[in-house]
């Protein structure tokens, strides 16, 4: 074991090393390497490995090993075997004594292993130590298990620091929101937000942009505003405040870059971060250009929302070595939610006096009563015209309901006996002729075998009956004769089935149903529906008229219907028959009204549905619109 050595560790160094490992913030591989090194120093191990067992427990990977020279030795395999045995044994401790051949000769050693709780994955810590006497095994186990708690302490420490940082961010957001409460001017509030935020969070730059209303008319031949933003879009961002700057000039390259980046955030209505997350599907060309012009940086843009609408954008920046974490962005979101209503209220109060006067005049004019009340006059005139139209404008009165198309003549073809389909001669939507078109043929092999067997049995029974009569055995003759008659009846039935094995179309028409692809070779039972034939040249519709409208419907009335397949095409009809009994459909009483179609189109098929409207008379527009309400009032008030 020349490749292994036993390190030394003083009692004073151990707590410091454990604390350093608990506070470690580097990459996972580096962390596990330091954990292996600490375990070696603590337990006096010759070699230590951190092993991840595969989920199926059929293999393991050594993700960290100490010392590095042990990688090529047999120790890695030993550590993996110990971790797998510990994983599959469902225990909390593993110890095995073994003899190893070293350059100095045979050596007695001990392999110990224990799981790493709270660590991601099936991780185990394994160590190779000089032979441990049974009396010292308990102390070694306590020391080793203490080491396995380091990952759990580290995760607890990281969670504590994250919660502390989150609390600090939320506190900062509340403090800033509280600081702007006494302020009333929009400009003062905006600059207080960006400067306090930059100071409290140690940020390099904070910018606040607000959505403004674009000019109604742009300069002829120029669709760009002073901020370099397309005014034809109907809105643009105006930079309201920039930390550390009292006056913002729109001609500054920095301001233009910031506004363009804010526009990207506004257009996509989502948060943007720099450096970009490869999994975030966003467009950040302007943000990338801003980063190139300003140098290496970390940035986040957050939209300010009011009533679900983006009203502004907040930009925060700092050095590239400190990218913004999720808990930091969460605190910024809280700040945006707190200050957005305050910003909007202050900006509304700071509006130009002319706009305020115009709004006030419009509200006053709408609320004043008198002969010069323009809005009231317009409202009264519109109401009078509406009432006049409801009374004067004629309109047809209709009874409407859902309908379904059905053929006048329809015939189903069932299976005549139990058997198998041998062949199919038609397909769906194929025309057939009555008594000529063969729909399908059933297999007759089984019936032919049964027929031959029964004919032989009948002949044998008749022979037995004749023989018994000749010998004077009348009782036996009668029994044989009875058996022969029963067998002959079966023969007649089988012959009838043979004659009905060919299914012929009973009527002329079109095949409208039948699972053609699955019928061949499929077993069928007597009475099973195989085909359905209908005469598509003669169709009718059955309309479900509600009980409240059936009194207005009479035979001979006309109307039109529209199918769900072709809602833009109307088909005329005439009422042919009204069923005298109602039936319940979808919780309400309806009467079936049969109508005759006038010049039905070729694409109309049985089973199609839609809405039909029967013209029952003529009335005014008000009667059509408010009849349901009037009927309801009559029923409730007994009017």
Topology summary:
Layout lengths: L12 H10 L5 H16 L3 E7 L6 E7 L8 H15 L4 E9 L2 E11 L7 E8 L3 H15 L1 H30 L6 H15 L4 E9 L21 E8 L10 H16 L3 E3 L10 H10 L3 E9 L2 E10 L7 H24 L3 H15 L6 H19 L1 E14 L2 E5 L4 E6 L6 E2 L5 E5 L2 H26 L3 H26 L2 E3 L4 E5 L2 H4 L3 E2 L4 E6 L4 E8 L11 E6 L7 E8 L4 E3 L2 E10 L11 E12 H17 L2
Antiparallel strand pairs: 1-2, 1-5, 3-4, 4-5, 6-7, 6-10, 8-9, 9-10, 11-20, 11-25, 12-19, 13-15, 13-18, 14-17, 15-16, 17-19, 20-24, 21-22, 21-25, 22-24, 23-24
Overall radius of gyration = 46 Å
Gross morphology is flat
Please identify the structural class as seen in this structure: alpha+beta
What is the residue-averaged pLDDT? 78
The end-to-end distance, rounded to whole angstroms, is 109 Å
Poorly predicted parts: 1-13, 214-235
Let me know the number of strands.
25
For the largest beta sheet, what order do the strands appear in spatially? 11-20-24-22-21-25
Q: Count every helix, treating DSSP H or I runs of 4 or more residues as helices.
A: 15
- Give the amount of beta strand, in percent: 25-35%
Helical content (DSSP H or I, runs of 4+): 40-55%
Oligomer: single chain
Largest sheet: 6 strands, antiparallel, barrel
Describe the structure.
This protein is an alpha+beta fold and 639 residues long. It has helices at residues 13-22, 28-43, 75-89, 134-148, 150-179, 186-200, 253-268, 285-294, 326-349, 353-367, 374-392, 445-470, 474-499, 516-519, 621-637; strands at residues 47-53, 60-66, 94-102, 105-115, 123-130, 205-213, 235-242, 272-274, 298-306, 309-318, 394-407, 410-414, 419-424, 431-432, 438-442, 502-504, 509-513, 523-524, 529-534, 539-546, 558-563, 571-578, 583-585, 588-597, 609-620. Strand 1 (47-53) and strand 2 (60-66) form a beta hairpin. The longest helix has 30 residues, at 150-179.
């Amino acid at each position: 074991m020349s490749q292994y050595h036993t390190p030394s560790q003083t009692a004073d160094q151990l707590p410091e090393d454990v604390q350093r490992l608990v506070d470690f913030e580097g990459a996972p591989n580096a962390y596990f390497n330091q954990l292996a090194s600490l375990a070696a120093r603590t337990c006096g191990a010759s070699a230590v490995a951190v092993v991840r067992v595969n989920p199926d427990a059929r293999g393991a990977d050594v993700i960290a090993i100490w010392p590095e020279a042990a990688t090529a030795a047999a120790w890695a395999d030993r550590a993996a075997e110990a971790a797998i045995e510990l994983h599959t044994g469902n225990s909390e401790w593993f110890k095995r004594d073994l003899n190893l051949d070293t350059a100095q000769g045979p050596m007695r050693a001990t392999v110990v292993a224990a799981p790493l709780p709270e660590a991601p994955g099936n991780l185990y810590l394994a160590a190779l130590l000089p032979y441990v006497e049974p009396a010292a095994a308990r102390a070694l186990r306590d020391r080793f298990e203490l080491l396995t708690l380091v990952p759990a302490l580290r995760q607890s420490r990281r969670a504590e620091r994250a919660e502390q940082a989150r609390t600090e961010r939320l506190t900062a957001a509340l403090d800033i929101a509280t600081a702007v409460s006494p302020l009333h001017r929009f400009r003062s509030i905006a600059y207080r937000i960006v400067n306090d935020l930059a100071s409290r969070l140690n940020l390099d730059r904070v910018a606040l942009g607000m959505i403004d209303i674009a000019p109604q008319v742009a300069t002829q031949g120029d669709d760009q505003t002073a901020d370099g933003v397309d005014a034809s879009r109907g809105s643009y961002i105006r930079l309201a405040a920039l930390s550390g700057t009292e006056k913002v000039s729109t001609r500054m390259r920095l301001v233009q870059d910031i506004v363009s980046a804010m526009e990207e955030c506004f257009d996509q209505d989502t948060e943007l971060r720099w450096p970009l997350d490869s999994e975030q599907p966003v467009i950040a060309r302007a943000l990338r250009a801003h980063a190139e012009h300003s140098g290496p940086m970390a940035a986040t843009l957050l939209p300010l929302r009011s009533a679900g609408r983006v009203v502004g954008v907040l930009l925060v920046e700092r050095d590239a070595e400190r990218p913004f974490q999720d808990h930091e962005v969460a605190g910024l979101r809280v700040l945006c939610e707190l200050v957005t209503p305050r910003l909007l209220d202050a900006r509304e109060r700071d509006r130009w006096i002319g706009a305020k006067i115009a709004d006030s005049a419009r509200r006053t004019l709408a609320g004043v009563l008198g002969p010069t009340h323009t809005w009231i006059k317009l409202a009264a005139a519109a109401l009078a015209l509406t009432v006049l139209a409801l009374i004067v404008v004629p309109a047809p009165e209709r009874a409407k309901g859902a309908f379904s198309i059905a053929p006048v003549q329809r015939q189903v073809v069932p299976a005549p006996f139990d058997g198998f389909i041998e062949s199919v001669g038609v397909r769906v939507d194929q025309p057939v002729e009555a008594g000529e078109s063969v729909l399908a043929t059933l297999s007759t092999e089984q019936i032919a075998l049964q027929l031959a067997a029964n004919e032989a049995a009948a002949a044998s029974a008749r022979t037995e009956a004749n023989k018994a009569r000749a010998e004077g055995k009348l009782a036996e003759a009668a029994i044989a004769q009875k058996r022969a008659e029963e067998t002959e009846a079966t023969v007649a039935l089988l012959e009838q089935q043979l004659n009905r094995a060919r299914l012929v179309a009973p009527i002329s028409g079109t095949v409208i149903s039948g699972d053609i692809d699955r019928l061949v070779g499929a077993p069928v039972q007597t009475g099973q529906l195989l085909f359905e034939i209908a005469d598509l040249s003669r169709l009718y519709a059955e309309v479900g008229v509600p009980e409240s409208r059936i009194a207005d419907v009479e035979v001979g009335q006309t109307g039109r219907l529209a199918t769900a397949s072709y809602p833009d095409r109307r088909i005329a009809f005439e009422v042919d028959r009204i069923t005298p009994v109602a039936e319940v459909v979808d919780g309400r009483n309806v009467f079936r009204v049969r109508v005759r179609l006038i010049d039905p189109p070729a694409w109309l098929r049985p089973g199609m549905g839609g809405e039909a409207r029967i013209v029952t008379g003529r009335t005014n527009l008000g009667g059509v619109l408010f009849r349901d309400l009037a009927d309801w009032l009559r029923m409730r008030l007994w009017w």
